UniProtKB/TrEMBL annotation:
GO molecular function: hydrolase activity, acting on ester bonds; zinc ion binding
Domain of life the protein comes from: Bacteria
Keyword Hydrolase: yes
UniProt: Zn(2+) 1 binding residues: 24, 26, 149, 270
Record-linked PANTHER family: PHOSPHOTRIESTERASE-RELATED, PHOSPHOTRIESTERASE-RELATED PROTEIN
Needed co-factor(s): a divalent metal cation
Cofactor note: Binds 2 divalent metal cations per subunit.
Keywords, in A-Z order: Hydrolase, Metal-binding
Family annotation (Pfam families): PTE
Lineage: Bacteria, Bacillati, Actinomycetota, Actinomycetes, Mycobacteriales
Keyword Hydrolase: yes
List of residues binding Zn(2+) 2: 149, 182, 211
Protein name (database record): Phosphotriesterase
Family stated for the protein in its record: Belongs to the metallo-dependent hydrolases superfamily. Phosphotriesterase family.
């Protein structure tokens, strides 16, 4: 990947061509074990039906005015890049995929054992896998990851998550791609993540603290953004109990724009177009949890709340383009010094 370019399912794109971007979505999140061994659970109507439905839903996203989505499905979700390639052949949308690991503590036993073996030999298995996904591509698809995903939950930096965040930081420094996180804003988890990234030499202006929109704590959100990092109000349509409502999320963004933070905010839904994590009974409780909700409902609500078109362009176009453009990685000697 050339510096400044953005890796997508259909090849490198200029960051200037990304257009309106949703920064945190999932197209397919299906367990490989269930897909192989219990396909009736993974794909109740068959895999082709799931692919067709994803194409139809993504076409509605494109028709609503979105040009790019960032699919942050990673190890632990799991990814299905060959299916994404098939889907993207049928819908004219940029899809940026991720590497990383989704867990609030230790990874899968396979990764844990391989990491232990690598550490005995002075290496880091997590870093090797993440960098290979970014530089060489995922599987045999040739699709390169354009962002790194990592996670902490309510318990904060556990032994396992600390190692994965550190690996994400090293891989980000080596490759120049940004980091996006899953965080618990009620535990002020973004600040803990940023402290670790800063200690590892990451440019915090290239970090997105995910799920920040779940809280209305403006002091916390401003503290995150004052580091240079970006907050993601990325669960529009998915107001879990104890988290902010749509109206509250809109009001928070409007307040932050008024205070000069419009250049450090992105939006999305965290929607899962097809997954074996959830069933229809669960998703029926969230009728707005669809990646058309931001362009059709949230954007008009933000305008009504006083957010200017210039600020909306910054949130949907300018900041995603800045974040996703591949930066110049650190020289290897600097990486060795900081590792």
């Amino acid at each position: 990947m050339t510096t400044g370019a953005v890796a997508t399912v259909r090849g490198d794109r200029s960051s200037a061509d990304l257009g309106r971007t949703l920064m945190h979505e999932h197209v397919f999140a299906v367990s490989a074990a269930l897909a192989n061994d219990r396909p009736e659970i993974a794909f109740p109507d068959g895999k082709q039906a799931a692919v067709d439905d994803a194409v139809a839903r993504l076409q509605r996203v494109k028709d609503a005015g979105i040009d790019t989505i960032v699919d942050v499905t990673v190890f632990g979700h799991d990814r299905d890049i060959p299916s994404l390639v098939r889907i993207n052949e049928r819908v004219d949308l940029n899809i940026v995929v991720a590497t990383g690991f989704y867990t609030e503590d230790v990874p899968s036993k396979t990764f844990e054992i391989r990491q232990a073996l690598a550490r005995q030999r002075g290496g880091n298995f997590f870093v090797d896998v993440f960098v290979a996904d970014i530089v060489d591509g995922i599987g045999t698809t040739g699709v390169r990851a354009g962002i790194i995903k990592c996670v902490t939950g309510a318990a904060g930096l556990t032994r396992g998550s600390k190692g994965l965040l550190r690996a994400a930081a090293i891989a980000a420094r080596e490759t120049g791609v940004p980091i996006t996180t899953h965080s618990d804003p009620h535990a002020r988890g973004g600040l803990e993540q940023l402290e670790l990234f800063a200690a590892e030499g990451v440019d915090l202006a290239r970090v997105v603290i995910g799920h920040s929109g779940d809280t209305t704590d403006l002091d916390y959100l401003k503290a995150v953004m004052d580091t240079g990092a970006t907050i993601a109000s990325d669960r529009f349509g998915y107001a879990l109990p104890g988290t902010a409502t749509t109206q509250e999320r809109v009001a928070v963004i409007a307040d932050l724009c008024n205070e000069g933070y419009a250049d450090r905010i992105v939006v999305s839904h965290d929607a899962m177009l097809h997954t074996d994590w959830l069933d229809d009974g669960y998703t029926a409780a969230f009728p707005d949890w669809d990646p058309t909700f931001v362009p059709t409902t949230v954007v008009p609500a933000l305008r009504e709340a006083g957010v200017s078109d210039a600020h909306l362009h910054q949130i949907l176009v300018g900041t995603p383009a800045r974040l996703l453009a591949c930066a110049t990685p650190l020289p290897k000697e600097r990486i060795d010094e900081q590792s």
